[in-house]
Amino acid sequence: MSSKDAILNAIRRGLKRGPLPADQRAMLDGRLATHPRHLIPARSRVSRPEQIALFVRNLEKEFATVERVPDAESVPAAVADYLAAQNLAPRFAMAPHPELTSLPWDTRPMLEFETRRGEAEDAVSVQHAWAGVAETGTLLFPSDPTRPTTLNLLPETEIAVIRASAIVGAYEEAWDRLRAERAGDGPNPNPSGGFMPRNIMFVTGPSRSADIEQTLELGAHGPRRLHVVLVEDEPAARSALSEGDPRPEAAREPVARPGQIANPAD
Amino acid sequence: MVALTSPDFKRRASRALGDARLQTALKRGGSGFHSKRSQAIAALPEFERLRDIGRDIKNHTLANLDHYLEVFERNVIANGGQVHWCADAAEARETVLRICQAEGARTVTKGKSMISEEIGVNEHLSAHGIVPVETDLGEYILQLVDEPPSHIIAPAFHLNRDDWETRFRAAHTDLPKDRVFHDRRDIMAEARGKLRERFLAADVGITGANFLIAETGSSVIVTNEGNGDLTQTLPRVHIALASIEKVVPTLEDCTSLLRLLARSATGQDFSVYTTFSTGVRRAQDLDGPEAYHVVLIDNGRSNMVGTDFHEMLRCIRCAACMNHCPVYGVTGGHAYGWVYPGPMGSVLTPSLVGVEKSGHLPNASTFCGRCESVCPVKIPLPKMMRHWREREFERHLTPSTIRTGLGVWGWFARRPGWYRAASRIGMGALALLGRGRGRFRSLPLAGGWTEGRDLPAPEPGGTFMARYAAAQRNGGRR
Q1: pLDDT tens track for A109-135
Q2: Counting one residue from A and one from B, how many pairs have CB atoms under 8 Å apart?
Q3: Residue A18: inside a domain, yes or no?
């Protein structure tokens, strides 16, 4: 008997039944096909402006930095200014995504870049974020020929460009969008005919570790810095972003700093 | 493989209590985990309802585990990957070795994986000339010092900063001897540099899996460092090691469990990297592995299905139970003597290696119930430890002194009149002896108790039952 059969038989013995009858299997396959949602926390069930403000607040809480720009044409300047402010050379590897390659980079002739995957010696990457999840300030990077995974991992600094209209409230909304956009003949067809990209990373802040004395430090193996350029392509987003966090400074959550003992009481 | 030393728990626990450096490390780590978890949960009012949902998703999956595993396998294959069903540890490590040998692999990078400790992959690969390199920061230093992890999500929980410096100096002899580690960041930067070379050179990357998704044939890893992603993205071959109970039906099911996992583990709302891997590199892709293998491991779990320990298979390995355990908090993980420490280990270890080989683990509990109250999928850990104690007793594995003591107690407990009389006499004698002192520093036959603490002398006024009876007579007031 193969190990597969031995394992399946042992499971069935434990469950005191044989293989599932056809009607039971059909019911389970129906659940897989309809993939019902469970409880979605209320925190992201808010108005569109509040959703986007929540996304930004959560990103900043997790040590990412965010710059809001009024339109896509402003992205090259935002990238150039960020690199200058961080004392980084104006050089980067960029995802070959049409929303990035179509930007007016020639307005900033000092910027040098190549469109390709990430390499070990890259200091900076410019990556296209396919979606953002407000619930936890999470960026989604499904892999495809225009969005190589290595750009999220190898450079010391990752700059992610995201459109405000790509921000959703909860993870489940992103799954639905992925299913709708990529079923069958997406940009990089799935051999199974399914919608899943080979790899999809959910990224919430820069790389970190607390393995040394349970104390948080940024930049373990992945990027030390995560900078998000948020393009306000949605009127609702614009009004929210110009207001920023409506609460007074004192009412905001205290933010732990890297290097602090991972104990909020400190 | 982690050598099994669980029968030695009592001696190792005593030694841990006297280890000042270990106590420093345990105190530092524990309180941070508590307060971060409670803050994260306070910020999510739905957390309690999500725990019920998490429990129900896992129960539904386990009730149909055979079906979901077969669906998972079909979808892995449809995406160009392979599934290897392995009944036990030996078959699993041999499978990994065969894949590596077929690729002509010389070095293998590894993401953090408890199942890989369980099946002993590293030793097996090394014995056949393939170099395994642990890339999680905590696992990396443990590999340098040849120690097993002491915690399932913070493997180097027991080490202090100077341990890191000493061991890095001893291991990284190519770096300047007079370099200075100003702070933790310098230690981390050195590891980052060293491991970068390894990531780039590796032929095969081995990760664990926090979840497997039947609907899509995906494996999911959850990390903060990004080492797991470098491990599964850069080499030609990705091997994901996963035990059979990791499968869940859909992305939505996984998402609900992910809302519980990081909050229960590190107190983060979400871990930094949560990555879903599905099959092999696609035609036009610029990166990603060309081969994708899932090694699906049973190693004793299918025998837990339908038993008193069935619910243990819901565990999502968040470590909240050990982070909140008063016993783990003072002994650390190594005392438990195998891969899985703390309350979840005290239930799982006897299930996987046998109660006769896991010694005192089910007894390493005060039954305070904190583990169950923080468990994100509501596993009744104390109840299951009690089941193991019963089996230990039934199989005559309990030491004879304890059996005799329990026998005597049982005789009295079944005869309430004798019980009350005996406790009255015993209390009277103790009260008389302890008069004026209030406590005993030592007592005959109770050296085990009084060695570490005083025994309070009974207060005057008789036993509880006597006082209760008196109160009843005085008009029913308690």
Answers
A1: 999 999 999 999 999 999 999 999 999
A2: 300
A3: no
**Domain around A168:** 47-241
| Domain presence at residue A263 | no
Give the β-pairing of A208-209 and A217-218: antiparallel
Give the span between the Cα atoms of B193 and A232, in whole angstroms: 38
Ranking A115-124, A255-264, B100-109, B356-365 by mean pLDDT, the lowest is A255-264
Q: How far is CA B127 from CA B124, B130, B198, B466, in A?
A: 5, 7, 19, 68
Which tens digit of pLDDT belongs to each residue from B210-261? 999 999 999 999 999 999 999 999 999 999 999 999 999 999 999 999 999 9
**Residue A259 confidence (pLDDT):** 54
Q: Could you report the predicted ipTM of this complex, rounded to two decimals?
A: 0.90
Domains of chain B: which residue ranges? 6-302, 401-473
Contact A71, A112 (CB under 8 A): no
Residue A222: DSSP 8-state:
S
Q: Which residue has the higher pLDDT, B271 or B442?
A: B271
Which strand (E) or helix (H) includes residue B213? strand B211-213
Q: Which of B278, B284, B269 lies closest to A178, judged by CA?
A: B278
Q: What is the CATH number of the domain that holds A206?
A: 3.40.50.10420
* B79/A32 CB distance under 8 A: no
Note the pLDDT of residue B312.
98
Residue contact B155–A10, C-beta within 8 A:
no
Fold topology of B6-302 = Rossmann fold (3.40.50)
A236 is a domain residue: yes
Q: What is the pLDDT of residue A265?
A: 35
Q: Does A184 touch chain B (CB under 8 A)?
A: no
Cβ-contact B47, B53 below 8 angstroms: no
Q: What is the pLDDT of residue A251?
A: 46
User: In the prediction, which pLDDT does B208 show?
Assistant: 98
Single-letter code of the amino acid located at B399:
P
Domain-located, residue A112: yes
Measured distance CA(B345)–CA(B353) in Å, rounded:
11
Residue of B nearest to A21 (CA): B67
Query: How many structural domains is chain A composed of?
Result: 1
pLDDT digits (tens, 9 = 90+) for B306-326: 999 999 999 999 999 999 999
The answer to whether residues B295 and B86 touch, using CB atoms and an 8 Å cutoff, is yes
CA–CA separation, B61 and B478 (whole Å): 49
Residue A62 contacts B where some CB pair is shorter than 8 Å: yes
Using CB atoms, which residue from B50, B66, B157 is nearest to A8? B66
Contact B279/A at CB under 8 A? yes
